[in-house]
Write a structure and sequence with these properties.
357 residues; mainly alpha; two-stranded antiparallel ribbon; 72% helix
Length: 357
């Protein structure tokens, strides 16, 4: 039965989320959920590199911005009629993001740990600088506009919400498949000890490149959805370091290297941030509360919410099984038999006396 619990939980989760836009949810609530799903998708995709492979990328917001500008530049030369054209472009955006990420990964993946994080965040600021200065392509500081989709005002958020829900299913499906394949085992070996993994025959470069390209491709698609949803792209928002920080915090909060951890972290932190932003207005106090939520949880659960809960449940089950074994008379061990009288020195507390004689 346990084999069916996980898939059943996932089906219920996605069915409930898919039904929400059709249940008369208010616009501001659905807008919060749109941004929450954005971060849930990006956290799940970041988890492939930062969680499963152990490479803490701090430059994923660069590919978020790349996806947004690919979408914006495309619709400078094409029209939006039905409103669904930006969604049809998403596979192409993902391919472009992965293609741009591949040569960068060839260089960045030669470094490890802190150096890798510094190299990747450098890409973020390079992308932001190019977006500000390539006026003929990106519009510079004035940004790019995308023709707004002609969706009805009563259900404007619904198509974007559903598309992001599909992207979340794709990101979690890729993670689930990786965890149950040789790719996931190879990534775990790389995270534990890359040199030993290479020594036992793991194709280290191949699995790292695959994880990175898939991760940034999905992130670029989220950036394209965001650009279509906002209908305007500014460089400082498309290449925002706070996007990367949010992705990393959510993944660590929920539990990196797990399937549901990044999603749980995104739903906790992003919903809290959005709600506090609505409640406290534009005074930026919500950022303090946002940070406090993360600090409190990380102090109480340093490994993340999901791994901590799993460890506690495992410990509780182990204690119950131990107590049950001790209480069952059939499982108690018989008392030790007395030693025979022909071996007096074996019973001695010092065995050296018997050996000397």
């Amino acid at each position: 039965m346990r084999a069916y619990v996980g898939p059943a939980r996932g089906v219920v989760f996605f069915v409930v989320l898919a039904a929400l836009p059709f249940m008369g949810v208010q616009h501001w609530v659905l807008n919060m959920l749109v941004f929450t799903l954005m971060y849930a998708v990006m956290s799940s995709s970041w988890n492939l590199v930062g969680g499963m492979a152990g490479y803490p990328s701090l430059g994923h917001a660069a590919f978020f911005g790349i996806g947004a500008y690919v979408e914006g530049i495309w619709f400078q030369h094409h029209t939006v009629t039905s409103g669904y054209e930006p969604f049809y472009l998403l596979p192409l955006v993902g391919i472009v993001g992965a293609a741009i990420g591949y040569p960068f990964a060839l260089v960045a993946m030669r470094t490890r740990a802190d150096v890798f994080a510094i190299v990747t965040i450098t890409l973020l600021f390079v992308g932001q600088t190019l977006a500000f200065n390539l006026n003929s392509l990106t519009g510079g500081a004035q940004g790019l506009s995308i023709p707004p989709a002609p969706f009805p005002a009563s259900s404007f958020e619904r198509p974007y919400y559903l598309v992001l829900l599909v992207l979340l299913a794709v990101a979690m499906g890729v993670t689930w498949a990786a965890m149950r394949s040789k790719v996931g085992l190879s990534l775990a070996a790389v995270r534990a000890d890359e040199d030993k993994a290479a020594g036992i025959g793991v194709h280290v470069s191949g699995v790292k490149m695959l994880a990175f390209c898939v991760s940034v491709g999905i992130t670029a698609m989220v950036g394209a959805v965001w650009a279509a949803y906002e209908s305007f792209i500014y460089p400082q928002f498309a290449f925002d370091p706070l996007i990367t920080i949010g992705i990393v915090l959510m993944t660590f909060l929920g539990g990196r290297g797990t399937l549901w951890g990044p999603v749980i972290g995104a739903f906790i932190l992003e919903l809290a941030q959005q709600y506090l932003a609505y409640s406290l207005g534009g005074n930026q106090y919500y950022l303090i509360a946002y940070a406090l939520v993360f600090l409190i949880v990380m102090l109480l659960m340093p490994r993340g919410i999901l791994p901590t809960i799993e460890d506690r449940l495992r410990t509780r089950r182990r204690r119950r099984s131990t107590a049950g074994s001790a209480a069952s008379p059939g499982l108690t061990e018989p008392p030790p038999e007395p030693l025979p009288s022909s071996a007096p020195y074996a019973a001695s507390s010092n065995g050296r006396e018997g050996s000397a004689r």
